[in-house]
Write a structure and sequence with these properties.
Helices cover about 70% and strands about 5% of the residues. It contains four helices and four strands; from the N terminus they run αααββαββ. A hairpin with a 6-residue loop joins strand 3 and strand 4. A four-stranded mixed β-sheet has the order 2-1-4-3, with helices on one face. The longest helix is centred in the middle third of the chain and has 84 residues. The chain is mainly alpha-helical. The structure holds zinc ion. Zinc ion binds next to loops.
Length: about 230
């Protein structure tokens, strides 16, 4: 993998973690909303009980039958309200239990995804370090090689590198420049085959080299006119 592809790889691996964390946050929010409703309902029940208690205490103040009937009705209504509120509280408690269970599940899922991402991140960081070590090594090798190259040749090489987007030395294979596909003149190809002087492609100016067939990989042997 290329080093510059690593951040994208990591962020694509992070997607399931982000989803899990978002699901966990949303579950936590709905859980907290339920807890708030439960607290409100408990306060309401407390108030209804207080109201019922006061209402019963006022029974002695009732003066006649009509007032007594109205008073009884009020007590009955208060009891009904209390019963309704208690039912709602019960169902809220059930919902909270279910929500607690789901919250735990979502949290465990997010934690699992986090562990996975951490492992991927560690792997990728290891890969980056490995690549950096390799690059350092290659640069040192290059430095040694360059110090052995004749100065004029090195200037030629770096100029071609700049003008040919990084590819300065190419194979002359089957009399064709592998850099620009130019058909190399026969006399020039003979010179290249001799491998004892620097020959540049007349078209792309890249330095050409010849590789004897026995040095070629088996699948490229004889290729060209098939
Ligand atoms: Zn060429």
């Amino acid at each position: 993998m290329r080093i510059d592809a690593i951040p994208a790889t990591l962020s694509s691996r992070e997607a399931p973690l982000k989803n899990a964390e978002a699901a966990c946050t949303s579950q936590r929010q709905s859980h907290e909303a339920l807890e708030k409703k439960k607290k409100d309902k408990e306060i309401e029940i407390e108030e209804l009980r207080e109201k019922a208690k006061k209402l019963k205490q006022r029974s002695s103040e009732v003066k006649n039958n009509k007032e007594y009937q109205a008073h009884l009705k009020e007590i009955e209504k208060g009891e009904e309200d209390l019963k309704t509120a208690e039912d709602v509280l019960l169902s809220l408690m059930e919902s909270l239990e279910e929500s607690s269970r789901r919250l735990k599940e979502e949290a465990a899922r997010a934690a699992g995804e986090k562990t996975k991402v951490e492992a991927v991140r560690k792997d990728l960081e290891g890969e980056v370090q490995q690549r950096e070590r390799e690059l350092k090594e290659l640069k040192e090798q290059r430095k040694k090689l360059v110090s052995r190259i004749e100065e004029g040749l090195y200037v030629l090489y770096t100029n071609i590198m700049k003008s040919s987007r990084g590819l300065a030395v190419v194979e002359a294979k089957n009399e064709i420049c592998q850099g620009c596909n130019l058909h190399i003149p026969p006399q020039m190809f003979v010179e290249i085959k001799a491998n004892d002087e620097i020959v540049e492609c007349p078209q792309c100016r890249r330095i050409l080299y010849y590789m004897r067939p026995e040095e070629e990989a088996p699948h490229t042997a004889g290729a060209g006119n098939a």
